[in-house]
C-alpha cells in the first residue's frame, strides 16, 4: 500500500535541496503583504530559479515597504485592491502569482489571475466553497494553466516519511487517527480570523492540517460528523470532527480559536503507533513506537521556513508544463472543499459567497 499523497520529488529521500534550480527561472507576482505573504516570499527568494518581480496591495506604503524588504522590483497599489491586482496581472513579465489574501477573496482574485493567463499558487483554503473551487479548476484547465492550493504541509519530508512508515506495514493496519490544531486568538472583528466576510473561523484556517493526517493515513471518509461553536457574528470558534471509515476505523480532529492544545497528530495501528512533533503542520520530528520493538525518533532540518518544498513543486510543475501537482490534484482539492461544505451544513455555518452564483467565472 502506498501513501495517499504521492511523494513529490522535492521530498524524496536523497533529493537535492528544494532551493536548487530545476529549470528556467520563473518571475513571481505576489498578492497581499500580510504575515503569511511575508513568510512565503522570504522562501521564494531562496530558490535559485525564482525572481520576485512584483507585489500588489491596497496600501501604497505597505506595498513599498514589502518590496524594499524582499527585493521586489515593482509595486502595484490602489485603494481598490482589485484594481491593483488586475494591473499586476496585466504585466506580461509575470509568470506565476502567489495569492495570500483572506479566504473570502481567493476566488475572485485567482479567477482574475487565471483569466489574465497567469499560473496560480493560492493559499488554503483555495476557495470558500466547492462551487468556487470547481470553477477555478475549470478555468485553469480551459486555459492550460497551473493551479494549486498552497498546503505546504503536503510537501514536507517529515510528513511523507511518517506516512510512508504508516503505509509500509511496519506498524500494522491503521485503526484511528487523532489530530488537533488550535490557539487562543483574541477576538477582534476586524481581524480576518474573526471576520465573516473574510471567511474567518477555525474551519477554513486550521482544519486542513489535521485533515492532512487523516486523509494521508485513511483517505476520504464514508461519514463525517461535526459539532462546533459559532460566536455572535456567526464565525466558527471551534469544531470537533469525527470521520468514520470502513472496518470501524475513525479519525477525531479538533480545530480551535479559543483554546490551546498539543498541536500534534497520532496515528494508531494494530502493531504500534506514530506521533508527530509540534506543530503537526510543520513537524521537525516524528516518534515511532512499534509494539515489541525499540521506539525511535526521526529528525528533520528545515530549509528556509519550509515553504520551499511547495514552492519547488510549483516551480517544477510549471517548468514541466503540468497544470496540477500529483501531490495535490485538483480533484482532491474539490473533494476536500465538498467535505468542508458538509461540515458547515452540520454547523449551520454560512459565508456571504455561498449566496452568489458562480457561472463560467462570473458572479
TrEMBL record:
Which family does the record claim for this protein? Belongs to the Gfo/Idh/MocA family.
Q: Which UniProt keywords apply?
A: NAD, Oxidoreductase
Gene3D superfamilies given for it? Dihydrodipicolinate Reductase, domain 2 (3.30.360.10), NAD(P)-binding Rossmann-like Domain (3.40.50.720)
Which Pfam family is one of those matched by this entry?
GFO_IDH_MocA
Stretch forming the signal peptide: none
Species, as recorded: Arthrobacter halodurans
Please identify the protein, giving its name as recorded. Gfo/Idh/MocA family protein
* InterPro entries (alphabetical): Gfo/Idh/MocA-like_OxRdtase_N, Gfo/Idh/MocA_domain, GFO_IDH_MocA-like_dom, NAD(P)-bd_dom_sf
Domain (GFO/IDH/MocA-like oxidoreductase) ranges? 161-275
* Span of domain Gfo/Idh/MocA-like oxidoreductase N-terminal: 26-148
